[in-house]
Amino acid sequence: MTEQTGFPPESQTQELERLRAQLAAQQAQITPPQAQQAAAQQLQAQAEIAGDSDTVAAQTMEQMREQVTREVLLPMEAKMDDLIVTLKAQSDAQAAQIKALQGQLTQAQLAVGPPDVIKYSQAVAERLATAAAPAALPKQHWAGVLAAADQLAAAAKDAAQSGDGSKLPDLVRQVEHFVTRGHTRAGGGHVEHFPALLGDLEELGAAALKLAPLAA
Fold it and tell me: Is the pTM of this model over 0.85?
């Protein structure tokens, strides 16, 4: 017997041959179709493992989406909805305040009356229209001064809004010239409303001076 194997040299050789014979017999028992089937089964198992990995990854991504939606997006949407409701309430409140202030301004304007430039320009236009109503003189006689009165009324409204009355005096002088000279020279007689009309023109000129200094 040898120290390495425990068998004598002949027995060791015989044992090796026996093992080789058993291995050959086992290999002979495995047919090619069986080998192919085993390989296919192994490939299928690997594919299933890979498929399971993809499924797990997809499930993980879906869970992450649900978590982000639940923890981030939904709270943000709720905050946006709350903010919109708050802003709408503030807007409605401001609109109500503006409407109330506009109502108070209208009441105050009615109580105080229109600005003097508007009040006296309207009085001038009304007195001239009354003076021109009788048919004693042709319409052409009054056409120029009535047009000037309309321009005066429009300019007075603009002056009241802009605070600039510098355009009014020229129109005032046109009307005044007709009343004091033009009407008489054209053959017109005494007009009852003219003295009051001249007073309105004087007040209108003074009101225009209060709005803004006249241009030199």
Answer: no
